[in-house]
Amino acid sequence: MPYHWSFAVLVLVQAALVALPRAAAVAVPALARLRSRWWALIPLASIVAVVLAVSPGDGNGQRLAWLALVTTPPLAAVALGWGIRGARVWLAALVVPLFALAWSEGGVADDLAALALTALGCLTLGVLLAAVAPPRWLRWGIVAMAVVDAALVLSDNLQPAAHALDIAGTAGGLPQLQRAALDGATMGYGDLFIAAALGGVLARQGRPQGRIAAAMALIGLAFGLLFWVLDALPATVPVALALGVDAWLAAPRPAPRAAPGTP
Questions:
Q1: pLDDT tens track of the chain, all 263 residues?
Q2: Closest of 110, 147, 106, 125 to residue 195, by C-alpha
Q3: Between the CA of residue 132 and those of 31, 75, 114, 194, what are the distances in Å?
Q4: In which element (H, E) is residue 69 found?
Q5: CA 161 to CA 103: how far, in whole Å?
Q6: What span, in angstroms and rounded, lies between the C-alpha atoms of 27 and 45?
Q7: What DSSP element (H or E) covers 150?
């Protein structure tokens, strides 16, 4: 079937990354000193850099796989101890059993553990980006990434780089944390990162994260129906559409007019 349960799980993980960032994590005074509108270019720059730098057989995909393997567990620990709602320092220790499970040969269980680590690592990066980029500019950065992602996917220009990353390995059966994969369905690292960035923006602005996360889940699940006619979809698009839902909810509404003759 073109539409598989594993794709639905990946969409729900994206939605969770919108809901989970906590406001206190994007309001750290030390990070405020680094704020600049240029940080908002990171989402767009990341996807362009992958397309330009990664191609089958050049070894860059494997280098990024090693980079993700080394950096993701510490970033996931930061998310559990600081970045998520209900964060506790002791929760950071959960990264150890998660990594051990991801390294095992447990089928779906090890895929889920690797997915959890990758998602939590992306959450930390998204929260940090939301802390240093002005919200208005980062919102436009999210939209720009989705537009470019859609153009690259629909023109088949992203798929070679994405495939090179999907198959890139490390050694000794170590988990692949440079993408999200579950029982045949895959999402790119950037698809999770951009959802976490949206969650960070909403947390920083005090917007209803749970409501927008639910909207993103519904949009993403409906968007997946396009798999009946397309082989690949830009998973950043539902994130940008959820951002549009938030903009619509935040838009001022005209005051109701008084009926004629009403004092």
A1: 455 788 999 999 999 999 999 988 888 888 888 889 999 999 999 888 888 888 777 778 788 888 989 999 999 999 999 999 999 999 999 999 999 999 887 678 888 999 999 999 999 999 999 999 999 999 999 999 999 999 999 888 888 887 787 777 777 788 888 888 888 788 889 999 999 999 999 999 999 999 999 999 999 999 998 888 888 889 999 999 999 999 998 877 676 665 555 55
A2: 125
A3: 6, 17, 28, 15
A4: helix 60-78
A5: 25
A6: 24
A7: helix 135-154
- Beta bridge pairs of residue 181: 186
Neighbour tally for 134: CB within 10 Å:
17
Count of C-beta atoms within a 10 Å radius of residue 144: 17
Task: Classify residue 194 by its DSSP letter.
Answer: H
The first and second tokens of residue 124, run together, are 């930390």
DSSP H or E segment with residue 119: helix 108-132
pTM score of the predicted model: 0.91
- Type and span of the H or E element at 141: helix 135-154
Joined together, the tokens standing for residue 255 give 């005051």
Alpha carbons 102 and 99: distance in angstroms, whole number: 5
Give 111's contacts (C-beta < 8 A, 6+ positions apart): 181, 182, 183
Amino acid at 126: G
Specify the DSSP element, H or E, that contains 195. helix 189-205
Residue given tokens 């830009």 in the structure block: 234
Q: Return the residue matching tokens 């990162």.
A: 193
Token pair recorded at residue 70 = 């080394």
Cβ atoms of 43 and 195 within 8 Å: the answer is: no
